[in-house]
Amino acid sequence: MTERKYKADDYKSDFRPTWCPGCGNFAQWRAIRAALAELEIPPENVVLASGIGCSSHMPNFLNVYGMQTVHGRGIPVATGVRLANPKLTVLVYGGDGDIYGIGGNHFLHACRRNVDIITIVSNNFIYGLTTGQASPTSPVGTLTKTTPRGSIENPLNPVSLAISAGATFVARGFSGDAKHLQYIFKEAIQHRGFAFVDVFSPCITFNKNQTFDFFRARIYKIEETEHDKEDFHAALDLANQRFVRDHLPIGIFYQIENKTTYEERDFALNQGYIPAHEELGLSDEQIEIITKEFY
Ligand SMILES: Cc1ncc(C[n+]2csc(CCOP(=O)(O)OP(=O)(O)O)c2C)c(N)n1
Ligand code: SF4
């Protein structure tokens, strides 16, 4: 057996995760590292951007370039990084409040632009960091601090939205199945174009409804069915089954490779131009001052 170039632990930072023991984010942290190791992507070629939330603390716990940005702004920052240097593997990680709520606009436009980045959403159906308020995915009737008589809003269906908006890789995972998550993340990272993964990821502290047991009783794997992931209408039909509450598919809903990416359509990038390789015309001292601002 040939030895792998990297181990999952090579992508681990010196900081221990601060999530509550048992939080769904742990499985995703492990699966991201395992997928990167399996694909042998050097840590220095990976950038992960996030916003604000428990899940958005992820860059602190990975030994890759990372940036925790403003609430909901992981996607535009990641887009900028990728367009500045298309040689990098660029990921976004955040919560349902962060990416579907305050950052919803960015999510929509990233899907239609088909920029070659990977967006992973740790969907716990509430705001975790701020101690449990309703989020865009909270089902009608959910009791939270902001909805004491039950949420009256219809929830968003992110998988269905991403397919309709033009994402070329759309999948769903579950934090209770780390091996399956690793497989999905690996496929998402290898995909050419905008890859989106919604992850059922229980908040064990503030959400007593969408628990690990809740999902275990309802999920099934798309790979074990006859689903054709290249069929747009079949993918949308399957995505809308989220509302059939006893059957929740996980796996790859939709994937097409025959659509050009934003980078391939850009008049400079498609000629091999890499903006990040431009001389900045700054002195070493000026660069040091700017760099220090990010520490
Ligand atoms: C502009 C702005 N508005 C509101 C907040 C407060 N805030 C911090 S995190 C958060 C939502 C977190 O929920 P989610 O994105 O689902 O992540 P989780 O903590 O559940 O992982 C909110 C509303 C903020 N930090 N900045
Ligand atoms: S509050 Fe919820 S989402 Fe946040 S770390 Fe704890 S279990 Fe995870």
From TrEMBL:
Residue intervals of the Thiamine pyrophosphate enzyme TPP-binding domain: 52-199
UniProt keyword ATP-binding present: no
Gene3D superfamilies xrefs: 3.40.50.970
GO molecular function, one term: thiamine pyrophosphate binding
Domain Pyruvate ferredoxin oxidoreductase beta subunit C-terminal span(s) in chain numbering: 203-265
The keyword Metal-binding is assigned to this record: yes
CDD domains assigned: TPP_OGFOR
Biological processes per GO annotation: cellular respiration; organic acid metabolic process; sulfur compound biosynthetic process
Pfam families per record: PFO_beta_C, TPP_enzyme_C
Keywords on record: Iron, Iron-sulfur, Magnesium, Metal-binding, Oxidoreductase, Thiamine pyrophosphate
Name of the protein in its database record: 2-oxoacid:ferredoxin oxidoreductase subunit beta
Lineage of the organism: Archaea, Promethearchaeati, Candidatus Heimdallarchaeota, Candidatus Heimdallarchaeia (ex Rinke et al. 2021) (nom. nud.), Candidatus Heimdallarchaeales
